[in-house]
Specification:
The complex is a heterodimer. By secondary structure, chain A is of the alpha+beta class. Chain A contains 13 helices and 13 strands. The chains are: A alpha+beta, B alpha/beta. Bound molecules: adenosine-5'-diphosphate (ADP) and magnesium ion. The site of adenosine-5'-diphosphate has 15 residues of chain B, from strand 2 and helix 1. Magnesium ion binds next to helix 1 of chain B.
Chain lengths: 420, 250
């Protein structure tokens, strides 16, 4: 026995009563679906694998002010000393730290497409009509210890050899590089699934050809907010500056011990310098993702608040309707309604209101999602989020209306004759 | 049709205990039109509520159309109410958010009739009270007399054996009251048993039998035809409730 049509008609004769709640449900659906989607996106970002043994890594900066040393030589001495500390697996001077938030980027190309006035042979390249592929790439510079210190896995090719490393005072151009697998798939999409075959390919930066000699499975850059985070390259170069940086890999349980003594050891080796900000990668990750974390937490709170307000709205509406209709409820009971019929009346009424809110809410969700896509270049809202939120609101509605409905069923039928 | 034996109904609140019906005995036969009179507070509405299964009894036996209603659960009582009893209230009790058609439909839906059957019954019932043309109107668009006729249509649509009316003309002027009474008489002629509470002695004579309730007991009952002066308590003031003293104190 469906009672939908008279309940709906009666509701429509009091549109204003239901309207606010309908709007509230619609807004809740729209906001919660989008917020949940954003949360899920952020969590996915935050939980991305950096490819690194993060718990084993920390970094510190060195600022040398003494003019009495050969920096190049000092960096070598530092490295040797650091690698000898008990608990240290490996150490390297490196220009940027993965997922730390800031570092070097450049664009690599799959061919040299700069017009060359001097050499007509370059027309060889312009035969192909498609423009050169440009790939945004996070750039690491380090020596033969870089791979081991980062703890990344070589899936093809080889590591640098010592003679390929170019030190600050040497002038020959870089000619070889190790890249991430994601770099290969982006630069050479035809090698998708066959990334190993990227070994030996040439890539170009500032018209300098560089040969890929090794490919690592995964290595994120420092820029956690960048969509190019997975595209990275390691160049065999150590820059000599009085400001430089070390990345140290230790056994995870030795990390704090090493951090505690690293400053003293460094200063003992050469005193005229400052050792700054030893930071674990765990710390850097938390720092880099702090905004995302806060955002997800705020959005979660928002979701809870919206659900609460909606539940209260539904309870309030139901209580209002029960009280407004006490006599009607008594009359219905006198005319043969069982307690179950009365409960069902309020459940159906609420279900109708919820559904109207949901229909409006679906439209609003899509609009809000489009707005967010345009304004904040978020991805398109997945329908499953609307579905899940819809189900949550349905359940919320059923739970919220149940107790007022039960109260309504307790109203004595005698009220039909007893009240005026 | 209706048989009450030694019924007691006691209302308990924190402070007082009101004996609304005491050792109440009454039988109503099928097809009768019984009017109930009595002073205010004497228990008329209580009797009607118990007869109509709106309230449970504290003690005693009640058979409705042969069914012992003591001990029935809510669902069974609701079903019995729906099938056997039609209610007419003093203040009409139409549902303001529903139009006339939907109002008459209410008990039929609880009965579980299909849409076609309901439509037939609704139209027929509204026809009978002369309001078929106004099916789509809301109760507020009708006069009091018309509203009460709709309420009667609603009570009749389920074809109950038993019509209970609590001061059905109490809120109507005399012309409208007469129309409603004519309607009830016709309904009774077609075989429906009617029990009507009224404080109007003239209306009380419309029935075949008048009973008077005083202090929760049937005081005197006589066939109106045999005893035209039967109404001993025409003036409520002379018959103020005296035994519900606890209530008076409170
Ligand atoms: N729900 C109730 N709680 C307590 N006392 C009640 C209740 N309903 C009725 N009474 C009392 O029962 C007595 C009979 O009431 P009622 O049947 O309404 O009288 P009548 O309809 O003859 O005026 C009155 O004293 C009234 O105050
Ligand atoms: Mg009364």
């Amino acid at each position: 026995m469906l009672e939908i049509s008279p309940i709906f008609n009666a509701m429509m004769r009091h549109k204003s009563h239901a309207l606010l709640l309908i709007i509230q449900i619609a807004l809740t659906l729209a906001i919660v679906a989008n917020a949940a989607f954003i949360i899920e996106n952020r969590l996915t970002l935050m939980n991305r694998d950096s490819g690194l043994p993060e718990a084993q890594l920390f970094k510190f900066d060195v600022f040398s002010f003494g003019k009495d040393i050969d920096l190049n030589q000092q960096m070598e001495l530092d490295e040797t000393m650091l690698r000898a500390i008990p608990g240290v697996i490996d150490a390297v001077t490196i220009n940027q730290i993965p997922i730390s938030g800031s570092g070097d980027n450049t664009i690599f190309m799959d061919r040299d497409d700069t017009p060359n006035k001097n050499n007509n042979d370059k027309n060889l390249h312009s035969k192909s009509n498609t423009p050169a592929k440009h790939v945004h790439t996070g750039v690491y510079r380090g020596d033969t210890h870089t791979l081991n210190t980062l703890g990344v896995k070589l899936i093809a090719g080889r590591n640098f050899s010592e003679d390929e490393i170019i030190y600050g005072n040497e002038t020959q151009p870089i000619s070889v590089a190790i890249v991430s697998k994601a770099f290969i798939t982006t630069m050479f999409p035809e090698l998708k699934g066959l990334e190993q075959q990227g070994v030996g390919k040439l890539i170009y930066v500032f018209r300098i050809p560089i040969k890929i000699i090794g490919i690592v499975d995964k290595l994120q850059s420092s820029q956690v907010t960048s969509s190019h985070i997975e595209q990275t390259i390691i160049l065999p170069k150590i820059q000599t500056r009085n400001f430089y940086r070390f990345l140290i890999r230790t056994a995870a349980n030795q990390q704090q011990a090493v951090i505690d003594k690293v400053e003293n050891l460094m200063l003992k080796l050469y005193p005229n310098r400052v050792i700054r900000t030893p930071r674990t990668l765990t710390y850097l990750r938390d720092n880099s993702y702090a905004d995302d974390k806060m955002m997800t937490q705020l959005l979660m709170i928002l979701i809870v608040i919206l659900f609460l307000i909606t539940a209260l709205g539904i309870v309030g509406m139901a209580v209002f309707n029960v009280n407004r209709r006490r006599k009607q409820i008594g009359t219905r009971r006198a005319l043969g309604a069982s307690k179950g019929n009365i409960i069902r009346y309020f459940m159906i009424e609420n279900w109708l209101i919820t559904n109207l809110g949901i229909v409006l809410g679906i439209a609003l969700s899509i609009l809000l999602s489009q707005f967010l896509m345009q304004q904040f270049s978020l991805p398109k809202l997945d329908n499953s989020y609307i579905m899940a939120t819809m189900i949550a609101i349905w359940l919320l509605g059923i739970m919220a209306v149940y107790f007022p409905a039960k109260k309504a069923a307790q109203i004595s039928p005698a009220i039909a004759t007893r009240s005026i | 049709m209706l048989k009450m034996q030694q019924i007691n109904k006691i209302y308990r609140t924190e402070l007082v205990e009101t004996h609304a019906l005491r050792e109440f005995n009454l039988s109503v036969n099928e097809g009768e039109f019984v009017t109930v009179t009595g002073p205010s507070g004497s228990g008329k509405t209580t009797f009607l509520n118990i007869a109509g299964l709106l309230e449970e009894i504290s003690q005693g036996q009640y058979f409705l159309d042969g069914v012992n209603v003591v001990g029935l659960n809510d669902k069974e009582r609701s079903r019995l109410r729906n099938e056997k009893i039609g209610f007419i209230f003093q203040s009409f009790n139409l549902i303001p958010d529903l139009n006339l058609f939907e109002n008459v439909d209410v008990p039929l839906r609880y009965r579980g009739f299909n849409a076609k059957e309901r439509k037939r019954r609704i139209e027929q019932a509204l026809e009978q009270v002369g309001l078929a043309a106004r099916m789509k109107h809301l109760p507020a668009q009708l006069s009091g007399g018309q509203q009460q006729r709709v309420a009667i249509a609603r009570a009749l649509a389920g074809e109950p054996k038993f019509l209970l009316a609590d001061e059905p003309t109490g809120n109507l002027d005399s012309l409208m009251a007469r129309q409603v009474m004519e309607l009830l008489k016709n309904i009774n002629k077609q075989g429906t048993t009617i029990v009507m509470v009224t404080h109007d002695a003239a209306l009380a004579r419309c029935g075949q039998r008048n009973i008077q309730i005083v202090d929760g007991q049937v005081c005197d009952f006589s066939l109106y035809d045999k005893n035209p002066q039967a109404s001993a308590f025409e003036n409520p003031q002379t018959a103020a409730s005296t035994t519900t003293t606890a209530a008076s104190i409170a």
